[in-house]
């Protein structure tokens, strides 16, 4: 039997499945159930989502994060529209052009040092609104947390969503790690995504095997989503196995427990790295991500034991992600090896 015992800090996607989620999958694997979401598991999971995001919310399950972003954006845009996002946004950097391919929209990416968009950056893009020669901004898309691990506070998100509404724009939130943002802020999932017209809610990075949800707080925007989802190859036939996982994640706040643990490990990791003179933390550690400058010649040595990604080759900046199953021993062993490596 092949096993992979090498642990790392490359991505929370690399972690396994939480035991309670695995138990839910096994429990759902009994007999037959109506396919494509017509089953009791999907009904129950959707009910729990409405407890978090409002009784009028519509929720749809898809396979993965890119699928959630692509279908969510496609449902609320036309091909002549544009989606405004940060230059570091997942939809801009890590989805192989899928949002543009499926929605037909142009992505307008804006530079930002901390991954957060601000209204004053977006305002100039609206000067040519209604000009038939230019794409028409329709959606502001933000990641919560951002791809740099920073979290929009309630005031920041309210300012951005209010601006979007005042300009006739919609707000999309990539919530692949929304649980981590809510845990950091000490608020509900709904509050962590306040003002969103459409959002994704991630399970894969927080203890699930696979599956994401697309949530429309305003059900009227979801009118045609079922057709978009099917055409985008994101309609799971055996949806009960996605739904059962979300049911487990939303039961007894497992989502919060997992996210809080990952965030706590990241804070501990950052505190230990801050004690290493040759290294420097580069972003606020608001969630389960730690970004740090590390001497170039020491990176390869540390990666022999713990895998992680080099975020910026030129600056020698690394990204370290903690997961629901990261242990104190993992953090201790990594930072001990870092100290040894940078000391030469």
User: What quaternary form is this?
Assistant: single chain
Do you know the CATH topology of the largest domain? Aspartate Aminotransferase, domain 2
CATH architecture of the largest domain: 3-Layer(aba) Sandwich
Number of domains: 2
Which band does the percent of strand residues land in? 15-25%
Please tell me about this protein's structure.
The chain is α/β, with parallel strands linked by helices and 344 residues long. It folds into two domains: 18-249, Type I PLP-dependent aspartate aminotransferase-like (Major domain) (Aspartate Aminotransferase, domain 2, 3-Layer(aba) Sandwich); 254-342, Alpha-Beta Complex (Aspartate Aminotransferase, domain 1). It contains 14 helices and eleven strands. The protein has helices at 19-28, 40-53, 65-75, 90-93, 98-103, 119-122, 154-166, 178-185, 189-192, 225-231, 240-249, 254-274, 296-303, 328-342; strands at 58-62, 81-86, 106-110, 136-143, 170-174, 198-202, 212-216, 280-281, 289-293, 309-312, 317-321. Strand 8 and strand 9 form a beta hairpin. The protein is globular and about 60 Å long. The model has no long low-confidence stretch (mean pLDDT 96).
């Amino acid at each position: 039997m092949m096993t992979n015992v090498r642990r790392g800090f490359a991505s929370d996607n690399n972690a396994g499945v939480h035991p309670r989620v695995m138990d839910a999958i096994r429990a759902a694997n009994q007999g037959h159930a109506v396919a494509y979401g017509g089953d009791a598991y999907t009904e129950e999971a959707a009910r729990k989502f409405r407890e978090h995001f409002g009784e009028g919310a519509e929720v749809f399950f898809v396979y993965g994060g890119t699928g959630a972003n692509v279908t969510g954006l496609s449902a609320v845009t036309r091909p002549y529209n544009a989606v405004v996002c940060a230059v570091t946004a997942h939809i801009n950097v890590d989805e192989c052009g899928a949002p543009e391919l499926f929605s037909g929209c142009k992505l307008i990416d804006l530079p930002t040092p901390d991954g957060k968009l601000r209204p004053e950056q977006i305002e100039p893009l609206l000067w040519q609104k209604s000009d038939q020669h230019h794409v028409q901004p329709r959606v502001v898309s933000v990641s919560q947390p951002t791809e740099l691990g920073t979290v929009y506070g309630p005031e920041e998100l309210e300012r951005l969503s209010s601006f979007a509404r005042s300009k006739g724009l919609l707000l999309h939130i990539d919530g692949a790690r929304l649980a981590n943002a809510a845990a950091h802020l000490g608020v509900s999932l709904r509050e962590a995504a306040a003002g969103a017209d459409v959002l994704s809610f991630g399970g894969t990075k927080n203890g699930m095997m696979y599956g994401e949800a697309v949530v429309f707080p305003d059900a009227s925007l979801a009118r045609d989503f079922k057709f978009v989802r099917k055409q985008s190859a994101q309609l799971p036939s055996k949806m009960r196995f996605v739904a059962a996982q979300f049911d487990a994640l939303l039961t007894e706040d497992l989502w919060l427990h997992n996210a809080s643990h990952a965030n706590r490990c990241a804070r501990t990791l950052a505190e230990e790295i801050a004690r290493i003179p040759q290294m420097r933390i580069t972003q606020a550690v608001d969630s389960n991500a730690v970004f740090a400058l590390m001497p170039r010649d020491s990176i390869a040595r540390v990666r022999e034991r713990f895998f992680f990604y080099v975020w910026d080759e030129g600056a020698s900046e690394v990204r370290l992600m903690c997961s629901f199953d990261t242990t104190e021993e993992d953090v201790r062993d990594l930072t001990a090896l870092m100290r040894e490596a940078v000391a030469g």
